[in-house]
Write a structure and sequence with these properties.
CATH superfamily of the largest domain: Transferase(Phosphotransferase) domain 1
Shape: elongated
Keywords: ATP-binding, Kinase, Nucleotide-binding, Serine/threonine-protein kinase, Transferase
Protein name: Protein kinase domain-containing protein
Pfam families: Pkinase
Helix content: 25-40%
Number of strands: 21
Strand content: 15-25%
Structural class: alpha+beta
Radius of gyration: 26 Å
Organism: Timspurckia oligopyrenoides
Oligomer: single chain
GO molecular function: ATP binding; protein serine/threonine kinase activity
Largest sheet: 8 strands, mixed
CATH topology of the largest domain: Transferase(Phosphotransferase), domain 1
Number of domains: 3
CATH architecture of the largest domain: Orthogonal Bundle
Low-confidence stretches: 12-53, 321-337, 461-473
């Protein structure tokens, strides 16, 4: 069964009150969100089918939007509760425990028992019969018809809202998939268009069956993270659809492609451009770190551009290796990432946290300004690891002779081997903003270093896409 993810919600919770100004306050994960009445009336017309809606309808509609977490057509549905099931074959009704996880609805005699049955709701007919006291919902699929009875009309309305979301959680109901534009170990990326408004999207199609069980953990983590993050310097996720065979992540299409490819192709790149890029990247990283998300795989391939023309606007992507620091625990212990951009503490198998991302940003900036990597070897991964751990950071005059002290200072601050002394995202962002503002230290003339080597077709070595082990260090 595909997982819907998210906090398990037993219906009956969530609505707090309507205040005097006509705003409905709702709780989600103990945090208040406020939406104005004018907003939900306008947005609800096509769903409710009338020009005006009742307060109760508005509350349930807003609950759905919160449940969907800002996604367009999908949600991390994970709701459960007791209700009555009407049996057509026998008179009367039976009290059963129902669980809606993603698009799958299961029925149990007891929450601790295995399900008596499970059905996929995609494409199902959902009929709401309000004439019944409390409410009755009829679910009709190709294999089964289910009749649910409710004593409480509000609970019935909440279940109806979630069931209606589940029945439409299929990518082809909302997006037209087109040509393939990329691929990964267990995934393909295809161009697509939203059926509703024609918006261009990129659709990452992950094959569950070809993915090893251990890697499914990373994939599920990526799904959980992209559902929650929302920042102008992070590639936006519009929808996540899951079934037994696939995970489909519908994302913002980034026509500019990879940052380093744009720089290498453009051939004209100055410090002001680099400072702009770093400010945007660090602003996105600051947002992630404040939410306890460690990216863990920062590298040029994961920095995309909204366009290939200057000024560039960049965004982080690919959260497959990301992890979330839990409350009271600010360290992780698994080795993941890409060799050239790996922080020393990661190689030493020490507990680590957000500073690993800042180290990687330092490597990216060094590479972006010079066209070279500070720690590199054409063939031997263990030599790269040794350099990261022990080699003195060097700024050769032929590469950095015309680079400002501001830029070099930021690189030094990001590449401190002791994570406790390393710049954090907020500090690095402040320094980058000062670097950008300081007209005397910003050169608008092109950097003379050969940046053509930054292009992915030349830059990727046999190590650059390989998850690595520290056994040889």
């Amino acid at each position: 069964m595909s997982g819907g993810g998210g906090r398990e919600i037993e219906f009956g919770e969530g609505v707090d009150e309507t205040n005097e100004r006509g705003e409905v306050e709702l709780s989600k994960d103990r945090k208040k969100k406020v939406l104005k009445v004018d907003y939900w009336i306008d947005r609800s017309e096509k769903e409710v089918g009338t020009g005006s809606i009742s307060k109760e309808q508005a509350v349930h509609w807003i609950e759905n939007r919160l449940l969907m977490g800002g996604l367009r057509h999908s949600a991390a549905l994970n709701v459960c509760g007791w209700m009555y099931k009407q049996n057509k074959r026998y008179p009367g009704k039976q009290r059963r425990y129902f669980h809606l996880l993603g698009t799958y609805l299961s029925c149990r005699r007891d929450p601790e028992l295995p399900p008596s049955w499970e059905i996929d709701l995609v494409g199902a007919d959902i009929v709401n019969e309000t004439k019944w006291n409390g409410g009755r919902i009829i679910i009709v699929t190709e294999t089964k018809t289910v009749r649910l009875l409710f004593r409480d009309g509000q609970v019935a309305a909440k279940w109806l809202s979630s069931l209606q979301i589940a029945r439409q959680m299929h990518v082809e109901m909302h997006y037209k998939m087109e040509k393939q534009i990329g691929f990964g170990a267990y995934s393909k990326v295809r161009m697509g268009h939203a059926i509703e408004d024609g918006m261009e999207v990129a659709i990452k199609v992950i094959d569950r069956k070809s993915c090893p069980q251990d890697d499914l953990i990373f994939l599920q983590r990526e799904v959980e993270i992209v559902r929650e993050v929302d920042h102008p310097n992070i590639v936006q996720t519009y929808d996540v659809f899951e079934n037994k065979n696939q995970i489909l992540i519908v994302m913002e299409f980034m026509p500019g492609g990879m940052l380093f490819d744009v720089i290498a192709t453009y051939g004209m790149f100055c410090e002001r451009d680099a400072a702009n890029v770093m400010c945007e990247l660090l602003d996105g990283l600051k947002y992630l770190h404040k939410r306890g998300v460690v990216h863990r795989d920062i590298k040029p391939e994961n920095i995309l551009c909204t366009q290939s023309k200057w000024p560039l606007h960049v965004k982080w992507t690919d959260f497959g290796l990301s992890n979330v620091l839990s409350a009271g625990n600010d360290a992780l212990q698994t080795q993941v990432g890409t060799p050239h951009f790996a922080a020393p503490e990661l190689l030493k198998s020490e507990p680590y946290g957000t500073p690993v991302d800042l180290w990687s940003c330092g490597i990216v900036l060094y590479n972006m300004l010079s066209g070279e990597l500070p720690f590199d070897h054409p063939e031997d991964a263990s030599e790269i690891f040794r350099q990261i751990l022990y080699k003195e950071l060097d700024f050769p005059p032929e590469l950095f002779g015309e680079i400002s002290h501001d830029a070099i200072g930021i690189i030094r601050g990001l590449l401190k081997r002791d994570p406790a002394l390393r710049l954090n995202a907020e500090q690095a962002l402040a320094m980058s903003q000062q670097w950008l503002k300081n007209a005397s230290s910003i050169r608008s003339t092109p950097i003379k270093n050969d940046l053509s080597k930054l292009h992915s077709s030349q830059r990727l070595s046999i190590f650059s896409k390989r998850a690595y082990s520290t056994a040889t260090v």
